[in-house]
Amino acid sequence: MQHQQQGILDWTKEGRVLTVEQKQFYRDNGYLVVRNCIPQHELERYTNRFQELCEGRNVPTTMSIMRDMTLKGQKLEEKTVNKVQDFGDDPVLFDYCKYLTVLDVVRDLIGDESSSIVAMHTMLINKPPDNGKLTSRHPMHQDMEYFCFPPEDHIVCAWTAMERVNRANGCLVVVPGSHKGKLLPHTYPDWEGGVNKAYHGIQNYDPSMPRLHVEMEAGDTVFFHPILIHGSGANKTAGFRKAISCHYANDDVCRYKAFENQNQIVCHFHLNFSNSVILEGNIERRPRYGKDRFE
Ligand SMILES: O=C(O)CCC(=O)C(=O)O
Question: Which Pfam families is this protein grouped with (predicted)?
Fold first, then answer.
């Protein structure tokens, strides 16, 4: 991790909520599972709100609701929607990004007590039962493919299981330690049944790399580095597999850089802290070539 030497990330120091061992596990493996981060009643609020969004109720104009590619043209409903993206203007779903049990871990991993943290990218990923085409698979990729606000070590994703996730319903799969490598070239995989929009995968991915299925209970959260190679398998069960996620960046360190590809995302949500209490979270969109955050 290149910025370690700058002293911002001190892996030898106990965090606010993480132990030195947990921090070092993240440093060495590029991911960390924290059990019981989000309580069941909150997960139920997010699930209910997702179901409302699928019915088209009070959908913020800034939000994208995406259908599985094999179900294009079909009515929006829980079994056709595979992703809700950019929920910064949704008061219920955005509560997830402000949840302090998550934010405390985020600050331990990409900053410190006084760091200013921004929520950069938000998703609720729904895997309906696979319809036989395996389109619920997510190819192995690195999230930095989509982001243009380095340095990577000051970005982290929090991904919370909204129900039990395991191999059968398509839990996350990670390649431990792969965050120590570089951002690799990505493309759409050449899969027979097709692949969902923007589900890019690493070109010439070597499937023999040792990988791990991250099985978790509802409310457990995996935090992972944006260079970590990860993906998820098909949901082969009859139930849904939902997860909610937010990518955070340390706003004191990360800066937008010139666009290299059009997939990169430009919008972020400020989280203002005062003694660890969130005062407000509001969406702020920057023009593609915004000035002050530009390198
Ligand atoms: O939730 C999933 O199945 C995969 C999500 C993911 O890897 C991503 O959106 O980057």
Answer: PhyH
Give the 3-state secondary structure of 187-251. ECCCCCCCCCCCCCEECCCCCCCCCEEECECCCCEEEECCCCCEEECCCCCCCCEEEEEEEEEEC
Domain 2-284 has CATH 3.40.50.2000: no
pLDDT in tens, 201-213: 899 899 899 999 9
Instruction: Tell me the whole-structure pTM to 2 decimals.
Output: 0.88
Q: Which residue, by CA, sits nearest to atom 2 of ligand 1?
A: 232
What is the spatial distance between Cα 264 and Cα 279, in angstroms, rounded to a whole number? 28
**What's the residue count for the chain?**
295
What does the block give as tokens for 53? 């969004």
Which among 221, 226, 219, 245 is positioned nearest to 178, based on CA atoms?
226
Considering only CA atoms, which residue is closest to atom 1 of ligand 1?
Answer: 125
Q: What is the CA(12)–ligand 1 centre distance, in A?
A: 30
Q: Which two tokens stand for residue 160?
A: 């919370």
